[in-house]
Amino acid sequence: MRENRLRTLWQQNKPAVNGWLAIPSSFSAEVMAHQGWDTLTIDMQHGVIDYAQMVTMLQAISTTPTVPIVRVPWLEPGIIMKSLDAGAYGVICPMVNTREDAQRLVSYTHYAPKGSRSFGPVRANLYGGADYPSKANDTIVAFAMIETKQALDNLDSILSVEGLDAIYIGPSDLSLALGCRPVFDDVDPPTAQAIEHIVKRAKAHGVRAGVHNGVPAVARARIALGFDFVTLGSDARLLSAGSQELLKALRA
Questions:
Q1: pLDDT digits 0-9 by tens, 95-145
Q2: Which of these is catalytic: 46, 197, 205, 212?
Q3: What is the C-alpha to C-alpha distance for residues 88 and 111, in angstroms, rounded to an integer?
Q4: Is 46 labeled as catalytic in the residue annotation?
Q5: What is the CATH number of the domain that holds 218?
Q6: Which of 53, 110, 164, 210 could in theory staple to 168 by disulfide, Cβ–Cβ 3.0 to 4.6 A?
Q7: Considering its fold, how many domains does the chain have in total?
């Protein structure tokens, strides 16, 4: 089966740098994939991407060694299983608030006897290889998003779920849940404390930790805190920022 380089990086105690895709285009996904990101996440929750577009983006990413991940819209078995069948090597699931939520996520991302994933790896067989069915359970990475007060209250019980590979922090939603400004980087003290608490508890449970960031300096600082997976920007933000920079320089 094709290697999941995200797991390889983690086995080498190296953090992964993740890019974010919100634009529904196989070409923009292909361009991003050729820039050297360790992983790229197709955002089906807040990006303007539907399932058919996601499949073409997965195909574009496949032209490179970059690992394809999908953030699904919600904790719903159909879209999680279809994303995996399309060839996603990781799933980021929003709003996992309880131990039961985490157990369902693990179940939906694993074949029996470890889970309840329905069998039909239509494109995953092409991407992963003929032995995909026997090795998928040990290859796919399941991320549970920790972004609510309820999830914080249930953190240790979520992290103790067998088969949960990683958690992922959305600083904006977590900030809102704690009564703070919804930002990525310059978070208010309660959110900063929560982020540090989450990564420490994840380490204690042997669960990998990821977080969304806006700038490299903050991503580096969070790696120093112990994060194994840092997201930087998105295709849409990079397009916007690059355009602004050019226009500012021209009109100065």
A1: 999 999 999 999 999 999 999 999 999 999 999 999 999 999 999 999 999
A2: 46
A3: 15
A4: yes
A5: 3.20.20.60
A6: 210
A7: 1
